[in-house]
Specification:
Blueprint: H1 2-29, H2 34-41, H3 47-57, H4 63-72, E1 83-85, E2 91-93
Antiparallel strand pairs: 1-2
């Protein structure tokens, strides 16, 4: 009986892992991307803004890093704000909601 429960538990965990990978893969190959939505939704957006947002959201990372972040949930380190914390401690503020691009 114990061997049966162990086999069923292993099969369940494996099934969930495979299904999560399949779902993530389908989301990656769907037509349309974040950049397309940003470019079509805001005519004033610049390519450097798209690059900055991709970096901010982790979309510039390798696919396996994106999968693990997607699997365990995203940690929003910005608090919902459009800013990037640079390695030297400075903060790069965004300009998507009309504010100027400035550094503190």
């Amino acid at each position: 009986m114990l061997a049966y429960l162990i086999r069923r538990s292993f099969a369940s965990i494996l099934l969930v892992a495979v299904l999560s990978f399949v779902l993530f893969s389908l989301l990656q190959v769907m037509p349309g991307s974040m950049e397309d939505m940003l470019m079509s939704g805001n005519p004033n957006i610049r390519p450097e803004d798209v690059t900055r947002l991709k970096k901010l959201r982790g979309l510039d990372q390798p696919i396996y890093v994106q999968y693990w972040r997607w699997l365990w949930g995203y940690e929003d380190t910005t608090g919902g704000e459009d800013e990037i914390f640079l390695k030297d401690g400075r903060i790069l503020l965004g300009r998507l909601s009309g504010e100027s691009n400035q550094q503190l």
